[in-house]
Fold this protein.
Amino acid sequence: MATPTTTTASSLIERYDGLFFDSFGVLVDGVDALPGAAELVSRMNGDDVNYFIVTNDASVSLESRVMTFAANGLDIPKERIINSGSLIAGYFSENDLQCAPTLVLGPQDVKDYTTAAGATLVNLGGDVEPDVVVLGHSGPHDWESTLEKLLTLFSRRFQEKHPVRLVLPNPDFIYPNGPGVFGFGAAAFVNLLEQAMKRLHGSHESLIAVKLGKPYSPIFTAAVERAGTNNVVMIGDQLETDITGANNAGIDSAVVTTGINRRSTPDEFEHVTDMLTPRYILASLV
Ligand SMILES: [Mg+2]
């Protein structure tokens, strides 16, 4: 079993050619910047450190995220933010989906990411059926009737051998929505559709949604490409997304204890699987 070692932000900056930071639980808590975050960002900007924010966010534009960071005292330019929403363009271009009739469920910013990818937006139940469905955010929808319509569409199109592609930019199943309050992410609804389609038609790759964000590979591939080096470390607070994703991508990882993860000593990782175990524990960003 791998055992993580404790380290500091300064030694990670020295040791690596690039640093990836998760946003929620690492730099911000949804209300304020976390201790040390503003100072660290300012120091990295001053020293021209090769750092990027790697976040599953898909429902907010990069410009809005820059403004939210700025309101928290974090001076992070949009060129340093790699989010799930901005991966939609790459997915559409790699799969020749420009101009594909696409249904987007989610707020305007997810629609903007998708039209920027070249897609033609259509409505559920409109004259033109979607070839792609981007499930960008969990709300607000009448989920029962929306899911039933999608299930009916997906099932028929699968039988017609022209399956609809389902794209999930942000694979977070649940999300924190204030102290002790939780909401269901879009992944929860995608999971219902996948389960239902499996019961109807069995296991087929075309019935599984394409997932772009952490822990899946597209966001790590994009981040490594942007950093221009493999010698990077992912700093995150969630073992299931940040750490597992980094391990799968073959890059090092460090877990902080300011977010969802509460394990703060190497001993506490004794019964954690290797895939969920980070290389480092970072007590704080200070
Ligand atoms: Mg997080």
Q: What stands out?
A: The pocket of magnesium ion is lined by residues 22, 24-26, 236-238, 259 (CB under 6 Å). Residues 86-211 form a domain with the Rossmann fold fold (CATH 3.40.50.1000). The chain has two domains: 5-84+214-282, 86-211.
